[in-house]
Amino acid sequence: MTINFPRREKAAAKVGPRLEISPIELQSLLRNQHGLSSILSNAESWEPFAWKGSDLSAPLRALFAAEARGLLARNAAENTSPVPIADITADINTYLISLGKKPVTENAVLSNLKSASLYLNAALGVSLVPDRTAMTVRLVNAVETAENIERYFDQIKCKLDKLTSQVKHAEACGYDVSRVLSADQVQGAKLLTASN
Fold first, then answer.
1. What is the pLDDT of residues 117-174, one digit of tens each?
2. Do 29 and 67 belong together in one domain?
3. Largest Cα–Cα distance of the chain, in whole Å?
4. Residue 119 in contact with residue 15, Cβ under 8 Å?
5. Which of these, 77, 113, 178, 189, has the minimum number of CB atoms within 10 Å of its CB?
């Protein structure tokens, strides 16, 4: 007997919704040892991603352990330090073994931290970087963020210039480009190219 199992076109969500939190509130969370994991674990809309039964999900458990190891601790220059994944794995395995469960590998923890990174970016716009080469995880600091923004803008600037040139051509010739670009997108491209 062949059974036709139901399928759907839309894939299951990989992350929850954006949380409405102000930059000031986020700054205070970043000063709390478990600020990031607590906001996700307490948000009702993130419950399917944060919890597995009565226990934290594996990505949130890895994030919690990283926070306990100093992920959010800042030095005098307001920078955070990378946390070794081996230390996070040791803490998680101590916890799992105490519950009679099997220990996990460093690669599994790295994978879970990548998921936590996606969660944080979707929910709060925060960038967490699990680094496979160094086997560490870190929060991106202000200097690195500014460098990334500059690098990404430099990569798209030439294309923005070309786009703006074509938009000006379309406007001069009276061509309707509204099916391709909204008025806000046209205005945004013009503003970005005018600023540099």
1. 999 999 998 999 999 999 999 998 767 777 877 888 888 888 888 888 888 888 888 8
2. yes
3. 73
4. yes
5. 77
End-to-end CA separation in angstroms for the chain: 66
Residue 166 belongs to a domain? yes
| Residue 72: closest CA among 12, 128, 18, 122 | 128
Q: Where are the alpha helices (DSSP H) in the chain?
A: 23-30, 35-42, 47-50, 58-68, 85-98, 106-124, 142-173, 183-194
Same domain, residue pair 69 and 163: no
Spatial contact of 88 and 66, defined as CB atoms under 8 Å apart: yes
Is residue 125 located within the same domain as residue 72? yes
One domain for residues 70 and 150:
no
* Same-domain check for residues 100 and 156: no
Which residues span the domain enclosing 94?
A: 23-140
Provide the number of structural domains found in the chain: 2
* Separation CA 128–CA 116 (nearest Å): 8
Residue type, 122: A
Q: In this structure, what token pair is assigned to residue 48? A: 């399917």
